[in-house]
UniProtKB/TrEMBL annotation:
One of its GO terms (molecular function) is iron ion binding. GO terms for cellular component: membrane. Gene3D superfamilies: Cytochrome P450. Pfam families: p450 (PF00067). It comes from Salvia miltiorrhiza (Chinese sage). Heme binds at C440. It comes from the Eukaryota. Keywords: Heme, Iron, Membrane, Metal-binding, Monooxygenase, Oxidoreductase, Transmembrane, Transmembrane helix. This is Cytochrome P450 CYP81C16. InterPro entries: Cyt_P450 (IPR001128), Cyt_P450_CS (IPR017972), Cyt_P450_E_grp-I (IPR002401), Cyt_P450_sf (IPR036396), Plant_Cytochrome_P450_Monoox (IPR050651). It is found in: Membrane. The chain crosses the membrane at residues 6-24. Its cofactor is heme. It is a single-pass membrane protein.
């Protein structure tokens, strides 16, 4: 018995090496994309540095806009050119419509019922359709406009009280974003009006952001399954604990809505929140309801807040752009009423400011990974089934061959013939919300949320930056290294609006 155990311990590493080499040798062919030299067993792990989008952009400069990588037992195709993106999401759109499975996905997505991470299937189509109908359709966005305008007014009133002082815009913008989503899905605020800007409000926000911060879909235990077997760094236990806390929070939201007393006829006429709507059609499937809530709280909050913060950072640091935007708002909105969503179509320069922010600082520098469901070809190269596709949106957005002075914040670049609609018009060099059938369905809500905040900030206040830092933190989303702080002064023309 001891001899058998000793034999297994000694031979296991060799067996693993043989299996991995066998797996990847079967995937290599003369028609494979270019690839850097690999190290046995770990593949190209030694070439992957943080931040990942910059590391992949550097490799693309050496190996081209289409190249392959291997990390442990996973194969990757990395693309960073409009032509390659177009081929992946037009000709091969269905092939790349799947998502890779992972340890995080096993525990944090209600068995992949959360449609952002679910495989391309009938369930995915049903869940996506439900979210679009209830939240993201034009009709739904019009109904929910009042929520966004009311939450913006709360932030403006607090800024009014703090006029002349340094304010933490990161916290206020995040509160605005989370309150909009919470009211849309549960009919209640995340942070109540009297708590906004207080330490109690910051703590509530920290806790919820901690539960629903965007999660790395693939990690060390996915590249090297043996790490999962041995419980590497307790990662799986942490994922299980995170899901337990998440589920308790979401179940409490669902129970609170379900247990409400019968509403009056007047209340019944109001627009229902997402949980109410889902309970009416999915009462027997609580995990489906909670899976949709997970998507909204992870994908619909942090990204909008980050984009707004980056946009304000750019405006405050470039007074000439801020002044041009203010002139447009004064001319088209005036001082008789607070800017509303109905005014947005009349503010094209504001739209360009938002788009330029999304280009220069995409909230998700790498689009969510896709998985090939069968063999295909991209750029003439053979791509095997089971390859994970990574689209480096940041590299496309910063390519000097596609954009003049790509590192410069220049809203004018989106003027006239260059105007584009988020990659949906055949122009695949602008990808802030993804592309293809798995593109983000919440783009419309995100644009309204960000545009309303920026427009109101500029209409009502003068801004002076305290200390500007354009560095970014590492992670799934592109956070500012230091939260934005600025001094706001109420404009005389806008004081009566607040």
């Amino acid at each position: 018995m001891e001899n058998q155990s000793y034999f297994l311990v000694v031979m296991l590493p060799f067996v693993l090496v043989i299996l991995i080499f066998k797996h990847f040798s079967s995937h290599q062919s003369k028609n494979s994309p270019p690839s850097p030299p690999a190290v046995p067993l770990v593949g190209h792990l030694h070439l992957i540095k943080n931040p990942l989008h910059l590391s992949l952009a550097s490799l693309a400069s050496r190996y081209g806009p289409i190249f392959s990588l291997r990390v442990g037992c996973k194969s990757f195709l990395v693309v960073s050119s409009p032509s390659a993106v177009e081929e992946c999401f037009t000709k091969n759109d269905i092939v790349f419509a799947d998502r890779p499975t992972s340890m995080a996905g096993d525990h944090l997505t209600y068995n992949y019922a959360a449609y952002t991470w679910s495989p391309y299937s009938h369930l995915w189509r049903v869940l996506r359709r439900m979210s679009v109908v209830q939240l993201f359709s034009s009709h739904s966005l019009q109904k929910s406009a009042q929520i966004r305008e009311q939450e913006m007014l709360q932030i403006l009133r607090l800024l009014h009280k703090e006029s002349g002082k340094k304010v933490d815009l990161n916290n206020l913008i995040s509160t605005y974003s989370f309150n909009i989503v919470m009211r849309s899905i549960a009919g209640k605020r995340c942070v109540e009006e009297e708590e906004i800007g207080t330490e109690a409000g910051r703590e509530i926000l920290r806790q919820i952001r901690g539960l629903f911060s965007p999660t790395v879909l693939l990690g060390p235990c996915d590249y090297f399954p043996v790490l999962r077997w041995i419980g590497y760094k307790g990662m799986e236990k942490k994922a299980v604990l995170m899901q337990k806390k998440r589920d308790e929070f979401l179940q409490a939201l669902v129970d609170e809505v379900r247990d409400k007393s019968t509403r009056s006829a007047a209340e019944e006429k109001r627009s229902t929140n997402l949980i109410e709507a889902l309970l009416s059609v999915q009462a027997s499937e609580p995990h489906v309801i909670k899976s949709l809530l997970v998507v909204m709280l992870t994908a619909g909050t942090d990204t909008s807040a980050l984009t707004t913060e980056w946009a304000m950072s750019n405006l405050v640091s470039q007074p000439e752009v801020l002044q041009k935007l203010r002139q447009e708002i004064d001319a088209n909105v005036g001082h008789d009423h607070l800017l509303s969503e109905a005014d947005l179509p009349n503010l094209p320069y504001l739209g360009r400011v938002v788009k330029e922010t999304l280009r220069l600082h995409p909230a998700a520098p790498l689009l969510l990974p896709h998985l090939s469901s069968q063999d295909c070809r991209v750029g003439g190269y053979k791509i095997p089934k089971g390859t994970i596709l990574l689209v480096n949106a940041w590299a496309v957005h910063h390519d000097p061959g596609l954009w003049d002075e790509p590192e410069k914040f220049d809203p004018e670049r989106f003027e006239g013939a260059v105007e584009m609609e988020m990659g949906r018009d055949g122009n695949h060099r602008f990808l802030p919300f993804g592309i293809g059938r798995r593109a983000c369905p919440g783009a419309g809500m995100a644009l309204r949320t960000v545009s309303l905040a920026l427009g109101a900030f500029v209409q009502c206040f003068e801004w002076e930056h305290v200390e500007m830092d354009f560095g970014a933190n590492l992670g799934v989303t592109l956070h500012k290294a230091k939260p934005l702080e600025a001094v706001c002064l109420v404009r005389n023309q806008a004081a009566h609006l607040l």
